[in-house]
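ok so heres the complex, two chains, lmk if somethin looks off
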Amino acid sequence: MPQTMPDIESRGYVHHEVLVSTDWVAAHLADTNVRIIESNEDALLYPSGHIPGAVEVDWASDLNDPVRRDYLASAGFSQLMARSGVKRDTMVVFYGDKNNWWACYAFWIFQLFGHTNAKVMDGGRLKWEKEGRPLARDVPSYPTTRYQAPERDDQKIRVFRDQVLEHMTAGRPMVDVRSPQEYSGERTHMPEYPQEGVLRGGHIPGARSVPWARAANPEDGTFKTADELRAIYQQEQGLKPTDDVVTYCRIGERSSLTWFVLTYLLGYSKVRNYDGSWTEWGNSVGLPIEK
Amino acid sequence: MTSSAETHGARPVWMRAGFASRADRAEATVSDVSPIPSLEALAEEFKGYDRGERTEMLIDYADRFVEVPPEVASRPFPETHRAPRCESDAFIWAVDQPDGSLKFHFAVENPQGLSAKAWAVIVDETMSGRPLEEIAGTSGEAIFRIFGSDLSMGKGQGLLGMLDLVQHEAKKRLAARRGAG
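and the predicted structre for the whole thing:
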């Protein structure tokens, strides 16, 4: 059973222990102290086949409050963990589609509830599939646990609109991880159709454009090495590990991957994810934008 | 594994069209199918499914996805055929048929883009061979009846983008006909 992951450890990450390899996961499928969690954008993927024993956490139906535009509260998170057979000290290992962006989103929300014994499977679903590893269609059932989550902490790694406005006014760094077309406000739809979802195109004034996918290797979904990541975020964009950084995208999912990269792989001390993101900022009365 | 959709009380569109199985329906040519099920009929059918049945049906559709044949297009696919807003990198081609209708072909570059593949098969099966006016007048609301109202905004936008491009092809030909007339 692999306990060390030389490939991941050799990449120079500040907190390499937050990643596990597909080999490691394959060796821990029956480990009762580990719960594998799949989180995808595409709701068809998990039922079409998943890592044996993995449970699904759906970003919309499981992690969001059904009424408020907010995440679930402590009681809801406790119930989710209980029915997933997760105890407070269970190691949760996330993986998913889109180079783990949804896995990182779920990871980020778990951190709002202080579930720090959490990892991400490097390469996500893409790497697992490419390696020809087994997929199962049966949905596992685990004994219900008693899980008492603390109140959600929205202060450390989450940021809200008015705080972002202050952050912008102070000239502190922000990373817009959407596509260059979204960042520039370019219309990407066909001319005869209205843009939906947001009233204005563009970005928060002062934000740097670093599309989220640049942090991953497209061929297998693994994260780039620390040197490659520093070349992007530090040499190219001028960020520093001591900076107070805000990341955002459209609803905070893609930017949670960049939050993960900056926080864990590069060891930045203060990175907060703005989950209101462009759907809130671009539609808000009185807020400035830049194209 | 038995598909729960196979045992559902409602008769699926392929069954109503006289086929013994979905595979038979998939292998049939447009002219074999009379009438070609409309998207509206399919959307109504999906309304009766619970979440599990809906999922099984959509996976079944995705499993039958066939990429655009090389005689129509080959990589690198031109950007003009890219569906707008689709994060699964869907590409669409419309081939004119002798009867004036269109046959739609698709490519989905994201291997994990199951919803895009399912939607491509649905669009092909319900719009290839249909009157252009019907295609042009199709409401994107059908997507949400088929995929469920909890479809994510990003995914919904991507599937609507695919429909946009299909409708654009139909509208383009209708406009040309009006111009010729």
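quick notes: The longest helix of chain B spans residues 153-180. thats all i got rn
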